């Protein structure tokens, strides 16, 4: 792999040990994927340092103590606790305080302490053809597809890219890999983020890690629906980019690619995703969760409308998860007070699959993390349903956002099939 003069300087340690280690890791990554050289990145969405793993926080702290600094704008991914109110979600103080240590380390490194899986709703909006790095698969697919930026699914390497401003040129950083691999014809007409996550989940299951060209959706989806579509694909498959002609750049409404493998997605496939994730007891859900991925301001407005003048049923918790930035904007817009008045809890920094609920993470016993016993979690996102099942090992109920709110206030599950029946 050809290195620039600056790359070699970093690799030789001229900018310090932390930058040297970061560049060494990126060189190894590039060589593993036969990258010809490196590209400049303009933004990185980086690992938070997860408090459920004490060593993970200590790694972030050690990196900061070595003098690591982000040389491009960088946001932090979702964490293991709401650092402003860990007590409110039932997390032990040891977990919350350890997560705060990771936050302090990121501040020393110059990262924006956003702690969200939707940094674009918090103002981090990479532009057309910008090379970026991202630890979060949902950020990757949104950036590649909706914004026209260029990113792979990077894992911890996003931290190293942020520290150096460089990344190996392979994968979706190359034009040849940004072409469609499958044509997906959608005969159903989904509406709302829940149905778009289900559509995405069905598409991802069918195409794996391909780049689907999606046709048949007759109206232009909203930004939230495009976000939901992408995270659904990234959850069930390895999709990091999709093409929706007329909605995703640079493909116009007449974009086509003859000779591709053909896939059809009908209402039956979308309904099947909802059915797959309705395994819990309809009368025994403990938690209703909205905001996966973390809610945008537009979604917060919609939730406030749905909950106006209503109260969450006794014995049910309603969580709305979002970023710190969106929560503050919602507060200033007068949305937060009515949401809280309904009995909903607005949670930042984390979500059910990333907080102390996770029972498969083998946390440090010294943290005192005892996952609660949960009968069923009711969700409006195929992504959340998938990971609740796999990471929390908890049954789920999956319905639309509107019907999830109806379920929360009545205490009785309202399935999507009832809307269509």
How is this structure best summarized?
Strands 11-10-9-12-13 form a five-stranded parallel sheet, with helices on both faces. It has helices spanning 5-11, 17-32, 54-65, 93-109, 137-147, 157-164, 193-207, 223-236, 267-276, 297-307, 324-332, 336-341, 382-392, 401-410, 416-420; strands at 38-40, 43-46, 74-76, 132-134, 166-168, 182-186, 212-215, 262-265, 287-295, 317-322, 345-348, 377-379, 396-398. It has 15 helices and 13 strands.
- Could you say which overall geometry the principal axes of the C-alpha atoms support? globular
Structural class: alpha/beta
Stated plainly, the CATH topology of the largest domain is called Aconitase, domain 3
* CATH architecture verdict of the largest domain: 2-Layer Sandwich
List the helices and strands in order: HHEEHEHEHHEEHEHEHEHEHHEEHEHH
End-to-end separation? 59 Å
**What is the CATH first-level class name of the largest domain?**
Alpha Beta
* Widest β-sheet, arrangement of strands: 11-10-9-12-13
Largest sheet report: 5 strands, parallel
Mean pLDDT rating: 94
Question: How large is the share of residues in beta strands?
Answer: 5-15%
Summed up, the helix count is 15
Number of domains: 3
- Low-confidence stretches at least 5 residues in length (pLDDT < 50)? none
Domain Phosphomevalonate dehydratase large subunit-like: 1-401
Protein name: Phosphomevalonate dehydratase large subunit-like domain-containing protein
InterPro entries: Acnase/IPM_dHydase_lsu_aba_1/3, Aconitase_4Fe-4S_dom, PMDh-L-like_dom
Keywords: Iron, Lyase
